[in-house]
Amino acid sequence: MSQDELIDIIDEDNKVLYSITKREAHEKGLLHACIVAEVIRSNGDFVLTKQASDRQDAGQYVSPIGGHVESGESDEDALKREAYEELGLKDFRYKLVGRIIYNREVLGRKENHYLVVFEIYTDEKISFNHEVESCKQFTKDKLRKLFRNSPKHVGDAGHVVFNKFYKVLIN
Q1: For the chain, percent of residues with pLDDT exceeding 70
Q2: Which helix (H) or strand (E) holds 137?
Q3: 89 partner at 20 to 30 Å CA-CA among 38, 41, 49, 54?
Q4: How far is CA 57 from each of CA 1, 53, 74, 157, 171, rounded to the nearest angstrom?
Q5: For residue 17, what are the CA distances in angstroms to 1, 24, 25, 32, 108?
Q6: What is d(CA 23, CA 21) in angstroms, rounded to the nearest whole number?
Q7: Cα–Cα distance for residue pair 166/171, rounded to 1 Å
Q8: Are strands 109-121 and 32-40 parallel, antiparallel or unpaired?
Q9: Each residue of 12-22: pLDDT tens digit?
Q10: Radius of gyration over alpha carbons of the chain, in Å?
């Protein structure tokens, strides 16, 4: 999605107020929806991706799927689009985990995101795009160790999502 594509500005109840460009939303720090998805393999392992050097969480592990919901697009359609664009995934089951508001200033942007968090269940082969340096599967024990022993190796939003929805896995 380019900085000039339209996204919907929403309120804290996820009600659409109006549409503007992604760039303008980030310049003004306006609340808008983003998809985040954890990919979980049939053996229970979580897949995390390491962000490429030109990304906001460069060199850190993050949720493997994340992106803006386009103006007029449903959360589920954004999830399917992002799963394909970022990991090449087409064949998966998913469920909504929850929603949380997350904001930060990064790379000169005021991100004020209404995160819509999903789980994707698939053993499909992953083929990542230019946004990703690498990907890795983590057992629950290795995931716990990553968060405990190397917290700076996980992107900021990853800490927010895992502390809210997967606390039992990382503590």
Answers
A1: 96
A2: strand 132-138
A3: 54
A4: 18, 8, 26, 9, 23
A5: 21, 15, 12, 10, 25
A6: 5
A7: 9
A8: parallel
A9: 999 999 999 99
A10: 15
Domain residue limits, the chain: 6-170
Residue type, 160: V
> What does the pLDDT read at residue 146?
95
- Token look-up 């997967």 returns 166
Token pair for residue 118? 């999903």
Residue 144 banded pLDDT, cuts 50, 70, 90: very high
In the predicted structure, residue 1 carries a pLDDT above the cut 60: no
> pTM higher than 0.85, yes or no?
yes
Residues 6+ apart with CB under 8 A from 158: 48, 57, 60, 61, 62, 63
The CATH code that applies to domain 6-170 is 3.90.79.10
Residues constituting the chain? 171
- Residue 59: both structure tokens together: 């060199």
